[in-house]
Write a structure and sequence with these properties.
The protein is α+β, with helices and mostly antiparallel strands and 271 residues long. It is 72% helix and 8% strand. Helix 2 packs antiparallel against helix 3. The strands form two sheets. It has a four-stranded mixed β-sheet. A two-stranded antiparallel sheet has the order 1-2. A hairpin with a 2-residue loop joins strand 3 and strand 4. The radius of gyration is 42 Å and the shape is rod-shaped. Bound molecules: zinc ion. The site of zinc ion has 8 residues, from loops.
Length: 271
């Protein structure tokens, strides 16, 4: 809701008393609509409500920022974990390949050993047995060589794809880091706006007549969220939309005193 200062043509009238000697009323703009005959106290209390609502909205914006920062940070952590997982896969491949290599070298040494033994044996069947062992071991070496080639190819592929995906992960990390920095600036901005909103609330409070301020604060204590002051239309509360009693309606229409909805307790005014 927006209340606007009275137009210049009304100012002269406001200074004096109305012909009937009662409280002078003047048209105000509330929520973009010209409203006639609004009690000045209501105008002040609506202005206070507007400032408080603004302050609350800024405060809820501020509360959301750390959650957003935490979300961005967890995305950064995920990206870093993905980079690390890729690196580990490459490392495991290398470890596996080195194991194969080691096994191959040990089998090659075994072949050399068999060949040396072969030169020393005298019997033909012993010689044949060693020949068989040499062939069997060489077969194993051949299999390991193939395995090593596959692992080497996999290593090349992994290294290449890791390079591409790491670039993408790093780019995403940079974006989220930028986002976190931006939210830090936003947080400082919102804090400054809250400071000025607090000052505006205090200034608006000082304008509200004491009885209206007391009634307003009572509603405010019970209800953490706006609206606290609502229009009464066609005998219905603009907050809870329930029908108010005839007594309440009469008070709102005729009284200058603050009147509460008999269902929800919000302050009512005649729009
Ligand atoms: Zn109500």
């Amino acid at each position: 809701m927006t209340s606007v200062k009275p137009q210049p043509e009304h100012i002269a009238c406001q200074m004096g008393k109305s012909p009937e000697g009662g409280i002078f009323r003047f048209p105000v703009r509330v929520g973009g609509v010209m409203v006639k005959d609004v009690n000045p106290a209501v105008e002040k209390v609506l202005a206070l409500q507007e400032q408080e609502a603004r302050k609350l909205s800024l405060e809820s914006q501020l509360r959301l920022i750390p959650q957003e920062v935490a979300k961005a940070q967890s995305r950064i952590d995920e990206e870093k974990a993905a980079i690390e997982a890729d690196r580990q896969r490459l490392k495991q491949n290398e470890v596996h390949r080195l194991d194969v290599d080691k096994e191959m070298k040990s089998l090659e040494a075994q072949v050399v050993k068999y060949k040396t033994q072969q030169m020393e044996v005298k019997k033909n069947d012993e010689y044949q047995a060693l020949t068989h062992e040499i062939e069997r071991t060489e077969g194993q070496i051949g299999e390991l060589e193939e395995k090593e080639i596959v692992l080497l190819m996999e290593q090349d592929e992994l290294a290449e794809s890791n390079q591409t995906t790491e670039t993408e992960h790093q780019e995403t990390i940079r974006l989220f880091e930028k986002e976190i920095a931006r939210m830090g600036e936003q947080e400082a901005g919102v804090k400054a706006q809250i400071d000025s909103a607090i000052a505006a609330v205090e200034a608006a409070q000082a304008e509200v007549p004491a009885d209206w301020l007391k009634a307003y604060q009572r509603v405010h204590q019970r209800r953490p969220k706006p609206q606290w002051v609502v229009p009464m239309e066609d005998q219905h509360c603009g907050g809870c939309h329930l029908k108010v009693s005839g007594e309440v309606e009469g008070q709102v229409l005729t009284d200058e005193k603050p009147t509460h909805c008999d269902s929800c307790g919000r302050l009512l005014y005649k729009p």
